[in-house]
Fold this protein.
Amino acid sequence: MKSATNKVQNTLQKLPSVTEVLKELDQLQGGIFSEKQITDCIRKSIEKHRKSILKNPAKDGMAMTSKKILQKIKKNVTEELLSEEEQNLRSVINATGIVIHTNLGRAPLSDSACNSLLEVAKGYSNLEFDLHSGKRGKREHSIESILCKLTGSEDALVVNNNAAAVMFALKVMSKDKESIVSRGELIEIGGSFRIPDIMKESGAELIEVGTTNKTYIKDYENAINNNTALLFKAHTSNFYISGFTDTPSREELSKLGKEKSLPVLEDLGSGSLYKFSILSTEPTVMDSIKSGVDVVTFSGDKLLGGPQAGIIVGSKYWIQKMRKDPMMRMLRLDKLVITALEKTLLSFLNPEKLTKEIPVYAILFQEKKTLRNRAKKLLKTLEKKQKTKATFSIEESIGQVGGGTMPSTKLESYSLVIQTKNKSPDFFSKYLRKSKNPVIARIKDNKIYLDMLCVKDGDLKLLQQTIEEALSMT
């Protein structure tokens, strides 16, 4: 019995001190983690190993040398630190190749929008004060005026996101009444928000017509009765059906609506305002207004390239009804979103400047050689300094617009490809995410892909440093 106790004590003596482990982890100090974080984690790991040895000494210590135990604790501490989730919202480098990435905050804002945000946020503003009359003003007046000018609509309204815009429009236009929609347009908007669910919450009764791939104008006409309040069209922005398909045009729906004295509501989702070549398949808000659609809803943070917002444009009659509805107060925008959205919309008054002022358009209209040069610059530096720890190459890649927008559009790009020699790509990717300047990359074929599509030239130095830090750990 005494001999067994002595063996356990001898095994416990193999456990390293905090200082010994700390020396082994010197590359972590001064980087992502504070010394206190590292020290606390080391103590927990040593204590965990001590309890494990006491519980099962034969398995957890006797057969291991002091050096092996030290390396095991070092590995556990590193993995534990990297697995701790950050709670604060942080800026990240988007190396996924997805431009409007919902998980990464969708559209990055323009410099003018950011500057305006800071100015308004740190002081008072004329949010609901008319500087001309000296009386109370309307908070969204300027935005609504610009929207009417840009879209050709009679009136406009803004709420906190497009799902709210759709639900609000349905509530005002068809509560306790029937809304007719094609089965092929019963989309899921994102985050499990589905058109049927939104209709139900709005109080509108969903009436499905046609089939998934084929719906005709006569299907709508045959479904109209005394309880019908609305003809609803949802742009299938996050998927597409090809082949044997048919769907009524906006013009056909608008004509039917006028014949039957029924309004037409269309959810465009992405909110494209101009027919740029790269967006040629995407309907514009003006297309809908010109075709006679009564009310159009779309997002502020997709192809508009602004902050999260739901925009409603169209008939003055219906917009005024929404503006007077009690729910409007719950859906209204705050001063920060208003100022960012206003600055974004002002850029659209000069479409020739969009690629310089709106980040989404700057990304979409980049030349392919610019992306290759960006990758080559990183490759050259990393190969020179880190070739013993990883192999580097450049590959052509395909990016996406993202955010449920234009799913069939492929954006030609280039990626820096990294294959580490000592650690798995999962470990490497985790370190990139947990760094002081988080990098979000893709893993494919056991390699790390850093797509250059959304990486700014100003990000390259930080990206290089973060990659080198990650490689020092692998």
Summary: Residues 35-55 form the longest helix (21 residues). Residues 93-105+365-473 form a domain with the Aspartate Aminotransferase, domain 1 fold (CATH 3.90.1150.180). The chain has three domains: 2-83, 93-105+365-473, 111-357.
